Amino acid sequence: MAQAPPKRQKTSSNASREEEFFPGISPIQYNPDAAPDETLVFRHYDAQQEVLGRTMEEWLRFSVAYWHSFRGTGSDPFGAGTIRRPWDDGTESLENAKRRLRAAFEFFSKLGNKYWTFHDRDLAPEGATLAETNANLDQLVELAAELQKKTGVKLLWATCNLFAHPRFMHGAGTSCDAHVTAYAGAQVKKGLEVAHRLGAENFVFWGGREGYHSLLNTDVKADLDHLAAFFRMVIVYKEKIGYKGQLLIEPKAKEPTRHQYDYDAQTVMAFLHQYGLTQHFKLNIEPNHTTLAGHPHEHDVVFASAYGMLGSIDANTGSPDLGWDTDQFPMDVRNCSVIMKTVVEQGGLAPGGLNFDAKVRRESTELRDLFIAHAAAMDTFARGLKNAARIISDGVMRKSLMARYASWNSGIGARMAAGEASLEECEKVIMERGDPKPSSGHQEHFEAMLNHYI
Ligand code: XLS
Ligand code: CA
Ligand code: CA
After folding, report:
1. Which one of 44, 68, 119, 297 is the catalytic residue?
2. Is residue 262 in contact with ligand 1, taking CB distance under 6 Å?
3. What is the rounded distance in angstroms from the CA atom of residue 227 to the CA atom of residue 380?
4. Which residue's CA is minimally distant from atom 10 of ligand 1?
5. How far apart are CA 113 and CA 246, in angstroms?
């Protein structure tokens, strides 16, 4: 049975603009000598410190996800919320929404991140009609513009929530009901205008319910044709209003649908190629989704980057032993190091960034937990960046990799790679040289080298 959420720790319904929402928490400072149990601190993240010619802030471009950190209540499929923030009166009023947004900007300022992200519906409640919903959103967008200007915090990306409302139960761009897809189009029209107004550097599409539960009631080709048509309308309107943000698609293998069409990076890239949309989009990769697809943590980051399609990263992690989308803060130095190695090798993520699409555990109920989670994740990525810089500067891992592929640099290898060889030539080479000799993959050598840097 659903239980009532806990009472607020402190009432703040008459909070004024000057009110401090996080009393007792000072801006997080860099202190490499902090004691092990001091966790409201950066031990590695020093925003202005230079690494390979850029500041850490420039490489890392950290962003806070509004939906988890300011709308999350700790509820899960088995239980009600455990977290009630002191500024939140539990209502869907516009006043409450505005107070929450002011609290968020105080959080960003004290944490020291330069970016945030949101879904349209995170910001403001839906009204009885689309017109009312848009009017509600406008009020919050104006406040956001004011707070962005005051604090210097910018919008990494905006997105439309096209999955939570019951109208989207069959999907949005892939709904069997064209009326629903038209609603999604109207919502995205407004979303693009909001992104333009707030200077969002990217605009994300996560296909929350674009997928199927049963192939018996699904026409997969029709769904994907409709999705491509939907994206074409997006491109036209984006150009019409002069919005310059990068469009991003975020793959996810499953959840909430049994099969999501944007299964993983390669699937999304193939979809974009198939429908001639590649030049308009890049990918927003979330490692928790990569592991849900059955791949290693960094797999989609590496694949998207290899094809010049890595636009941004939802920096989080899952518990692969569980198989759910748990959206945990990224705290694993090895994972963050290999991700940053790819990011540095491709020359950075801008205009994308590292967005903490992560939530504190439902048992982590105090305000300080929200700061500790973000600060520790930022520190983990800062360590990852420093490790990646050493790996790349030393060049020994690269040298071992090149050695493994050396046979492609000359002779038949170079001719095949250049598309100059033929099957007859292959036959001739083998007749002359005989069978290839076995060669070692040296996997443990590579693993040992990586451990040296971590
Ligand atoms: C959910 C997704 C979602 C997107 C934005 O699994 O990660 O939060 O990032 O809609
Ligand atoms: Ca995400
Ligand atoms: Ca997720």
Report:
1. 119
2. no
3. 37
4. 206
5. 21
Domain 40-394, CATH? 3.20.20.150
To which residue do tokens 């984006």 refer?
A: 238
Q: Is 68 in the pocket of ligand 1 (CB under 6 A)?
A: no
Alpha helices in 346-442 (DSSP H): 367-394, 396-404, 411-417, 423-433
pLDDT digits (tens, 9 = 90+) for 290-341: 999 999 999 999 999 999 999 999 999 999 899 899 999 999 999 999 999 9
Question: pTM here?
Answer: 0.95
Known catalytic membership, residue 119: yes
Cβ of residue 159 lying under 6 Å from some atom of ligand 1? yes
State the span(s) of the chain assigned CATH 3.20.20.150: 40-394
pLDDT in tens, 73-124: 999 999 999 999 999 999 999 999 999 999 999 999 999 999 999 999 999 9
Cα 387 vs. chain centroid, distance in angstroms? 22
CB 324 within 8 A of CB 291: no
| pLDDT recorded at residue 323 | 87
432 C-alpha vs ligand 2 centroid, how far in Å? 54
Burial classification of residue 48, based on how many CB atoms lie within 10 Å of its CB (0-12 exposed, 13-18 middle, 19 or more buried): exposed
Give the separation between CA 222 and CA 219, rounded to whole angstroms: 5
Q: Which residue bears the tokens 């806990």?
A: 6
Taking the C-alpha atoms of residue 65 and residue 419, their distance in angstroms, rounded to an integer, is: 46
C-alpha of residue 206 to centroid of ligand 1, in Å: 6
